[in-house]
Design brief:
- The longest helix has 25 residues.
- The chain has a domain of 177 residues: FAD/NAD(P)-binding domain (3-Layer(bba) Sandwich).
- Helix 1 crosses helix 6, helix 4 packs across helix 5 and helix 6 packs antiparallel against helix 7.
- It is an alpha+beta fold and 333 residues long.
- The strands form four sheets. Strands 2, 3, 4, 10, 11, 12, 13, 14 and 15 form a nine-stranded mixed beta sheet that branches.
- It contains nine helices and 16 strands.
- Bound molecules: flavin-adenine dinucleotide.
């Protein structure tokens, strides 16, 4: 098996870096132990709106681990298991049975397409509707000791006008802040946006008070097709994995679990001789319901009145958060 990866070495990626329970378990079966990699245990969640906080235990043990570290561990594991991993190789074009890189044309009778948010020319996804005009930001931070202690063990989802933020610890006493913001709201520069969000939400302001950013500017991404589930057409020998098969709204923190689930299903399909249509049907069955539910929940939280209501209700009945967390998982082992 040949694996082509365009990055030449470890790289930071836009991601909340929340590894949900089923992803932790799936990684363990692949021989990747999130705890040994320094993953920060996460067992509870806080939902925040305008400084009001609802808190609940999660119905599974999750973890925070940077993609910088996790993706390298996965590639190392692939090498150890005999894959021919080629780094710094960008696929420019692809078609059933063929992959074109900067330097060569490779025959690929079976093509596992796992390019994530980025489409490859020739095999681009066909989104059902235009992607939301959301911009994603990610920044690693060093929080003050008190704020680090307060955040440890929790993933925090902070809802605001035109988007939401995820905040949690990853390895090495680092916090990850990941934001999704409507394009309409991002007509200012990053420091101005962050300052405005801190004025709006006293909880976020407290967390970020005295924090040092690891990078001058955050990583950014634009137009992620949230809610996408591959409906075809299916091409011979082409199996779509991860975000190429289904894209769940980020606040659920289940994109990596879906990617791992799809990899397992696709590998099984290939070994059994199932065609791509059979595999994609199984993916629609497994990933479709959580993606649709998460998409509906995201749309609802765009209304300030509903955000207030949701936080009030979950303060009163924290079990609601646990149910929502379970219903937006691709599968629980
Ligand atoms: C803002 C945001 C926050 C998120 N937060 C979370 C979270 O907290 N938890 C969670 O589980 N999920 C989260 N997700 C979703 C998660 O990041 C994705 O669902 C997941 O990474 C999908 O995995 P993948 O393998 O499909 O793609 P990726 O992880 O994006 O991997 C694709 C790989 O393909 C390589 N590649 C791309 N194009 C080419 C090419 N042409 N040639 C060669 N190589 C190529 C890339 O370099 C990359 O290594 C978030 C997403 C966003 C946008």
């Amino acid at each position: 098996m040949t694996l082509l990866e365009r990055e030449t070495g470890p790289a930071h990626k836009i991601c909340g870096e929340f590894i949900s329970g089923e992803a932790v378990a799936d990684l363990a079966t692949l021989g990747v132990d999130v705890g040994s990699l320094g993953g920060a245990p996460i067992g509870a969640m806080r939902l925040v709106h305008r400084g009001r906080v609802a808190e609940s235990r999660l119905p599974f043990q999750a973890a925070g681990l940077s993609r910088f570290r996790l993706d390298e561990a996965l590639l190392a594991r692939a090498v150890a298991l005999g894959a021919d991993v080629r780094r710094g190789v960008r696929v420019r074009n692809a078609a059933p049975g063929m992959v074109q890189t900067d330097h060569a044309s490779l025959s690929a009778p079976i093509l596992l397409l796992a390019t994530g948010k980025h489409d490859v020319r020739g095999l681009a996804r066909i989104p059902g509707r235009a992607p939301e005009e959301l911009i994603g930001f990610k920044l690693h931070l060093r929080l003050t000791r008190a704020q680090r202690a307060a955040l440890t063990g929790f993933v925090e989802v902070i809802l605001f006008d035109g988007g939401y933020a995820g905040l949690q610890m990853v390895e090495g006493d680092t916090a990850n802040l990941c934001l999704l913001v409507d394009r309409g709201r991002y007509d200012v520069d990053w420091p101005t946006l962050l300052a405005a969000l801190q004025r709006e939400d006293s909880h976020l302001a407290r967390r970020l008070d005295g924090a040092c950013a690891a990078w001058v500017r955050p990583l950014t991404i634009f137009r992620v097709p949230y809610g996408f589930v591959h409906q075809g057409p299916d091409q011979p020998g082409v199996y779509r994995l991860g975000d190429q098969a289904a894209v769940i709204p980020s606040f659920c923190g289940d994109g990596m679990a879906i990617a791992l689930h799809s990899a397992r299903l696709a590998a099984t399909a290939v070994l059994q001789g199932d065609d791509p249509a059979t595999y994609h049907r199984a993916m629609r069955r497994d990933a479709g319901p959580p993606v649709r539910l998460a998409q509906r929940a995201y749309r609802l939280t765009r209304s300030p009145a509903i955000r207030t209501l949701v936080v009030s209700a979950t303060r009163r009945w924290p079990g609601l958060l646990r149910v929502a967390a379970l219903r937006t998982r691709v599968s629980m082992p």
